[in-house]
Design goal:
418 residues; single chain; Rossmann fold; 2 domains; 6-stranded mixed β-sheet; binds ligand F0G; alpha/beta; 37% helix
Length: 418
């Protein structure tokens, strides 16, 4: 395994309580809360949150995202029910795949049904701290649902830009009922992000897509939970974490959590799980970059997949995530829509109901196991990012068909017998 790049820990003069922002490209530091800022003013690079001190596991206390406050930029956030999701063991699937053990971290059991809540509890709190008036995001659906709910909780106006006709029904319904203004854009997610980023740059709204560095801090807590729960359950950390990739925000967030734990002396670099990303074949620019050993991702203008949550042609956090794949000795793989649907059904048959994008993780694990990239003695965690009910149409299509029967017992028995 390659060495993990450990972030600089010398706070600049204008850090606040040992917290600051820094450019991932040129290290230019910025005060964390003095102004709205998404990118480096010197080189336009992505920003990340840095800390003078990194906590060890002993500093964590409580439940959910805010258990990890010692590793976050604020002491508290806008709260609903974020984090504290279950890590299910999946022994039948492990046997079937031929791995030593398999756990499924079900992020669909966050309050709004996806991992996005973890980022929003932090990001919306920062927005409120900055005193902004309007929140906004582009979304394939889940980000908009979470932002709408957390924005409503904070009493703030929320604007969401969605690719018209390409967002699953459950997600649109959530954004609508939580009171967001929904703008349906004639374009794909990447077009929506271009537009909303320009609106944010013009000062029209505070951007809460995952290029917002504070959001990824909340999402880091997925890694903390996986490590703590896996160690409690099995006595060790997982060898590998397999996750779906869209904008690669989660991949970047998990990698950051590992680097900070290593910096704290809380995690042996040799025990860092291998990060393994999965995309749908019709939307796989990140996989192409990993395969080419590239530091950047070439945008795909045409993208299509049943896993609409990850129907993304220009992963915004690629520059943060690609080193995470490389330095942990990981890889990335593309899977077909049929393989995604099969995996969704397999998870459901183990009682774990997820949306298609989430099932990509299991589909990717199966393909990598078949290719011998994943060893049979590995202990693996699949991250499932969104709940089954997010996309009722996909679930219904993948599941069993209803059988019409008459409204009498004899008729039902005859039907069952036949
Ligand atoms: N899984 C689900 C269910 C998602 O909604 C997303 C992203 C991902 C995986 C990919 O995560 O971007 O961190 O690599 N959804 C965003 C949205 C784009 O707008 O809801 P990533």
């Amino acid at each position: 395994m390659a060495e993990l790049t450990i972030p600089d820990s010398a706070p600049p003069a204008d850090a606040t309580d040992g917290v600051w922002l820094a450019c991932i490209e040129c290290d230019e530091p910025y005060p964390p809360f003095d102004a709205v800022r998404y990118r480096c003013e010197e080189c336009d690079g992505l920003l990340e949150v840095r800390y003078a001190d990194h906590p060890t596991f002993e500093a964590f206390d409580g439940h959910g995202v805010w258990r990890y406050a010692a590793a976050l930029p604020l002491d508290d956030g806008v709260r609903l029910a974020e984090g504290g999701t279950p890590l299910y063991s999946a022994p039948r699937l492990a046997d079937d795949l031929g791995v030593a053990d398999l756990h499924v971290k079900h992020e669909g059991l966050n309050g709004t049904g996806s991992f996005k809540d973890r980022g929003m509890t932090v990001g919306v709190a920062v927005a409120s701290h900055l005193g902004v008036e309007r929140l906004a995001c582009a979304s394939t659906g889940n980000t908009s649902a979470a932002l709408a709910a957390y924005g409503a909780r904070a009493g703030m106006e929320t604007l969401v830009l969605l690719p018209a006709g390409k967002v699953a029904a459950g997600k649109v319904a959530q954004a609508a009922l939580h009171g967001a203004r929904i703008l349906e854009v004639d374009g794909n997610f990447d077009d929506c992000l271009d537009v909303v980023a320009a609106l944010a740059d013009a000062g029209e709204a505070y951007l809460l897509n995952s290029i917002n560095p504070f959001r990824l801090e909340g999402q880091k807590t997925i890694a903390f939970e996986i490590l703590e729960e896996h160690r409690e359950r099995t006595g060790t950390y997982p060898d590998r974490i397999v996750l779906p990739v869209g904008n690669a925000g989660n991949t970047a967030a998990l990698y950051k959590a590992f680097r900070e734990l290593v910096a704290a002396g809380a995690l042996d670099p040799a025990a860092v799980p291998t990060l393994t990303g999965v995309q749908a074949a019709g939307s796989a620019p990140f996989v192409a970059a990993v395969e080419d050993g590239s530091e950047t991702v070439d945008r795909w203008d045409e993208v299509e997949t049943i896993a609409t949550a990850i129907r993304i042609g220009s992963p915004a956090n690629a520059r943060k995530a690609l080193p995470g794949i490389r330095e942990t000795g990981g890889t990335a793989i593309a899977v077909s829509d049929d393989a995604i649907t099969d995996a969704q059904r397999e998870l459901a048959e183990s009682g774990i109901g997820v949306e298609p994008a989430s099932a990509a993780s299991l589909a990717g694990l199966r393909k990598l196991r078949e290719r011998g990239v994943v060893d049979g003695d590995e202990s693996v965690v699949c991250l499932t990012t969104g709940h089954l009910l997010k996309d009722p149409a996909a679930a219904a299509a993948a599941g069993t068909d209803p059988e019409p029967v008459p409204a009498d017992v004899d008729g039902v028995l005859a039907h069952l017998g036949g």
